[in-house]
Structure formats: structure tokens, C-alpha cells
């Protein structure tokens, strides 16, 4: 079998675990080749301060079987309005087997016009913003709609990766990978979603994250306008009829 | 509050998600500084082909509050017999608040003499080898014994990281981090342990992994001999009375 070409977009401010959870899964089969794609080969710095070395550039990236876009912190804003990046995603997506994302990476896919008319998911704190971009958002951890496969927040990249591996190969390959990674999670707390976390925990995180959410919202409105999507003053989506 | 100094040993052949799961957790609080430690600042390549840039060397690493040793593929063998690395771990461990590991990193801690007399855990496929090094192995995902905190295989680094964050700060900080990472896992299969995976899946992975397990076993026997631990021909542990 020729190698399956899988590419993750990386960029300054990317959330490293959005990439690395799925990277670990998808790089396990001997017949996959996983690329980290950026404009240059110069190392970029993640949202957490991790240095990530791209392995191919936009121009040297081979035609991909899977393109995956991870989410980011404030650095993601630049990706949502960068014509070079959005055009790269559109071009690759014409021939890939799967167009995918983890976390708020789905907002970049939507900014490229690649998720409108599809069901998708996103980090819980940004699902309303993904909906503002004309995407049918499902509150699930992994959403498959035709050849679009999207994951929810950060750690969902592992669930996403295993699901995708099952689609690319078969369930046995995905299960062998899961066993290798000993993925039998036992979270020490039950605070992984706003529905299960305490009010105090949700409030603390939202207070911390509000500046980021607000900055994203400004960009989301601008992107929505490009698609002639009406967004009212409350941020709710009024789809053009 | 002065910054909490947290250091991960990295090395050629390290399993990247052993590091990156816990890295994502432990780098979230504003008051932690997370280091990636190696002999030089030259990038190293993980078991999966990821380039990782160390941030400090053995000699420039500050006194740590937490030292964490991740597991590796074949590259781990070198760490288990490298006096410079083992000595660094022993020196740092004298003053750290917590001595920790993810996956087979506990075998490196044991090779440094830092887990004998403690309860600890390890990737499921190597628990018998960790026991051969004189460690009381518990088949748990995270084990806390005094100031030793160890995680099981690869993805357990997330459970480990959240548990440790709860110990370093409080449960609320750990829960806020869990919510940010949307850690409410939904594995698409139930194959994360040999007990829950099908016999075929276990057999396939063990067949694939047997050369690595055998190579580890040779090193484990050598390390056990250094500690005057008797290991019989079947590999079972006969602790010196």
C-alpha cells in the first residue's frame, strides 16, 4: 500500500494538544506519513510556548489524503483571514479523502468556506460562533458528515483521531492503536464540560477566557459578513433566506 | 506567587504524547513554567518522528518543583543506562516537590533508583518489567505514593497531569484546566486495555510490539542486576531477602 498522506496545519499560537493527540493516533500505522504544514520551515511557537518544527510548506506539501486543521489561541484570528492559508485549504480539500479539524480549527475551515452546508463540532465555548458562520453545529465530541470529520475541544483530538483511523482503515486498526496508547481514560474529576463542571469552575474559566472569546467574536462577525450571513447585535445567526 | 518550575525530560525516541498530554495540562496555570530538558538544545526526534526543541540543558535546568520522565520507544534503553541522565534525575529528585513519570518513564526512574520501595504504575505491557526493578506495581492509571506520582500508558498523561495539578494547587484549578481542555473523553472503541480489547487486537499489538518488549527485557535484567535483584529465567522477580 502506498503511504497515506496526512497533513496538519500548524501556525503560531496553535494549541499543541489539538495537534499532538491526533498526531499520535494517526502516525501509529506504518503506512501513514504525517506532515506538519506551515508557510515556511521555520519553527513556530504554540499557544503554550511549545516550539513546533513544520515538516513541509504550503508549496512543498504533497497532495493530501487527509487535511486536518487544529484550533489556536489568539493566533487563530490571523489564520481565519489569511487568504494564502484559506486558499491552501480550499485547494487541498478538492482532492482529499477527508477534510477535518480539531477544536476551533473548524472555524478556520468555515472561514475557508469548507463547512457551510455541513454538520460539524467545535470547542464548547465557541459553538455559537461556529454556527454564526453558517455551519450546522452538533454538540458532539466527534461529528462525521460525508467527508468532513470534526472534533470538539482539545483532548477530543484523540477521540477524533481514533474515529478517523477507523474510517481510513478499519476498526481493528483503530483498536490496536487505542490499546497501544492505553486509551482507557479515567478523568480524576467530572469537569470536562460546562454541563458537568460546577458553576464556580465554569465562571472562573469564562472570566479568564472572555477576552479571547470576544476577540474571536469580532473576527467571526467579519467572516460571517463575507459569506453574506446576517449576524444580529446579540450575535445570533439569522441565515439569509 | 513565584513560578512553579516543572521539567520534562525529553530524549531521542521519547513518545511525544507521553509529554504533550501532561504538558498541556501543566502549562495552563499562569504561574507554572514548563521546561523540556535534554543534554543540549539541539532538537531531538520523538518515536513518532516529531521534532522537539529542548528549552534547557541538564546543566542550565533550574531546581525543579516537579520532575517528570516520559516513556519512549527503543530510545528509552539508552536513558536507562546513561549515568549522566540517571545522575541528573537523582540530583533533581533530592529537592523536588514531586518525582513523576508517564508510561515507561517509570522504568527510567527505577533505573535511577528512585522508585524502589514505592508503589507506581507503567504502560500495561511493561508492568512486569517495572516489577522486576523492585517497584511495587499497581495496575492503576495513576498512582500516588508519597511524593511519587506515576501514570500508566501514553494517554494516561492527561489523567496524571490533572491529578498532579490537583495536588500542586487545588481541585478547582485542575477542574478549570479540565474544562478548558474539554476533557470529557468518549473513546469510540473499548479497546484501551488488554482486558477490554478483543483477543485478536491484543495479539496483533503484541506481535507488533514483541521486538521492543524483548529489547526492553534485556535492559531491565541488566538494570535489575545492578540493584542485586534476582530475576529468574522466566523473568519473574525474586526479591532479595
Automatic annotation (TrEMBL), chains A, B:
Q: What CDD domains is this protein classified in?
A: GATase1_PfpI_2
Residues in domain DJ-1/PfpI? 7-165
The UniProt keywords, alphabetically, are: Plasmid
In the UniProt record, does the keyword Phosphoprotein occur? Answer: no
Question: Record's InterPro entries?
Answer: Class_I_gatase-like, DJ-1/PfpI, INH-QAR
Gene3D superfamilies assigned? 3.40.50.880
Q: Which interval of the chain is the signal sequence?
A: none
Write down the Pfam families for this protein, in alphabetical order.
Answer: DJ-1_PfpI
Q: Which GO terms describe its biological process?
A: regulation of DNA-templated transcription
**PANTHER family, per the entry:** ARAC-FAMILY TRANSCRIPTIONAL REGULATOR (PTHR43130), DJ-1_PFPI DOMAIN-CONTAINING PROTEIN (PTHR43130:SF2)
Which protein, by its recorded name, is this?
Answer: ANL18
Amino acid at each position: 500500500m502506498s503511504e497515506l498522506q496526512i497533513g496538519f496545519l500548524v501556525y503560531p499560537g496553535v494549541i499543541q494538544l489539538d495537534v499532538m493527540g491526533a498526531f499520535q493516533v494517526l502516525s501509529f500505522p506504518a503506512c501513514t506519513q504525517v506532515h506538519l504544514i506551515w508557510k515556511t520551515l521555520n519553527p513556530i511557537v504554540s499557544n503554550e510556548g511549545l516550539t513546533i518544527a513544520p515538516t513541509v510548506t504550503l508549496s512543498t506539501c504533497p497532495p493530501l489524503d487527509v487535511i486536518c486543521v487544529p484550533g489556536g489561541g489568539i493566533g487563530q484570528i490571523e489564520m481565519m483571514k489569511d487568504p494564502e492559508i484559506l486558499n491552501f485549504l480550499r485547494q487541498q480539500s478538492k482532492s482529499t479523502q477527508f477534510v477535518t479539524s480539531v477544536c476551533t480549527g473548524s472555524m478556520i475551515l468555515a472561514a475557508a468556506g469548507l463547512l457551510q452546508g455541513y454538520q460539524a463540532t467545535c470547542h464548547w465555548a465557541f459553538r455559537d460562533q461556529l454556527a454564526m458562520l453558517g455551519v450546522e453545529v452538533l454538540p458532539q465530541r466527534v461529528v462525521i458528515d460525508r467527508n468532513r470529520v470534526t472534533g470538539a475541544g482539545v483532548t477530543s483530538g484523540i477521540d477524533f483521531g481514533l474515529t478517523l483511523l477507523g474510517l481510513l482503515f478499519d476498526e481493528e486498526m483503530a483498536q490496536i492503536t487505542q490499546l497501544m496508547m492505553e486509551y482507557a481514560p479515567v478523568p480524576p474529576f467530572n469537569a470536562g464540560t460546562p454541563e458537568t463542571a460546577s458553576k464556580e469552575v465554569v465562571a472562573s474559566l469564562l472570566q479568564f477566557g472572555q477576552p479571547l472569546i470576544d476577540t474571536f467574536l469580532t473576527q467571526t462577525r467579519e467572516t460571517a459578513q463575507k459569506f453574506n450571513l446576517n449576524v444580529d447585535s446579540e450575535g445570533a445567526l439569522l441565515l439569509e433566506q
